[in-house]
């Protein structure tokens, strides 16, 4: 999100917070996302738990005052809202309360805008009361809230990605007309220009153009899946030994994206945090026998072509899958610039934003 705002040339980050938590089995800091943020944006995020960290502590750490904050960005974890997590049908994840927590920071700093992105279930799902609580509190503080669910391919992302987009404006109405496209950017548009590379190899001109090594049965399975949109359901019976137990041949339509190849001339399916393995979704190259490289995955997720990721290879993929597509964030930022009439503001008079992430 911060990258998209910064790419306008009229916003700059003055603070960022991320606890860098991945799975419970991983220690805090293991994701290296704060290293990546610092490498690309020049600001070292504070590693802290925003459920207990107070606004004054954040402001003091970075040395800014409330009037410096024009935009507050709050992107709580989506895991507790996603319908793909079966436990969410019966349990309300404690992290979901971080959505409402954004109002605490809005009250302290009174930013002109509050921006939030999350899965569609934040607005429509079982635990939408967290959004309703946030809406109620922001309204009490004088904000008018814009909230809609959109498929981000309508914003030019070469990927089907349905998300809740929320912008709250202090003391006024925010209107954003998201375009309804009839044609969409495709996988070919996003990555078709990149040079071919073998799995496990690093391209000499781009260290991000690298994917995990594939060998043995895994490679044979990938080779058996037809090019340009093929699925595990296309593996012929004579190669049935390449199927894994979860490939339920009794129901050939089950989970067709597992080990699937992307189709050149369609948008990609949703990129998730588990995109580092071909068995987790349709993440294989349309014609090359490998997982998409870090660079390819990043381009499909709307990252700039020069963006650098730090950490282990698996965490580079996780950082991509967990991110708000910068391409979409930039369009939100430009909509805000239009709203405040700042399209022609010189860079020397750039506005500031605070990226608040967990």
UniProtKB/TrEMBL annotation:
<keyword id="KW-0680">Restriction system</keyword>
<keyword id="KW-0489">Methyltransferase</keyword>
<feature type="active site">
    <location>
        <position position="78"/>
    </location>
</feature>
<dbReference type="InterPro" id="IPR001525">
    <property type="entry name" value="C5_MeTfrase"/>
</dbReference>
<keyword id="KW-0808">Transferase</keyword>
<dbReference type="Pfam" id="PF00145">
    <property type="entry name" value="DNA_methylase"/>
</dbReference>
<comment type="similarity">
    <text>Belongs to the class I-like SAM-binding methyltransferase superfamily. C5-methyltransferase family.</text>
</comment>
<protein>
    <recommendedName>
        <fullName>Cytosine-specific methyltransferase</fullName>
        <ecNumber>2.1.1.37</ecNumber>
    </recommendedName>
</protein>
<keyword id="KW-0949">S-adenosyl-L-methionine</keyword>
<dbReference type="InterPro" id="IPR029063">
    <property type="entry name" value="SAM-dependent_MTases_sf"/>
</dbReference>
<dbReference type="InterPro" id="IPR050390">
    <property type="entry name" value="C5-Methyltransferase"/>
</dbReference>
<dbReference type="InterPro" id="IPR018117">
    <property type="entry name" value="C5_DNA_meth_AS"/>
</dbReference>
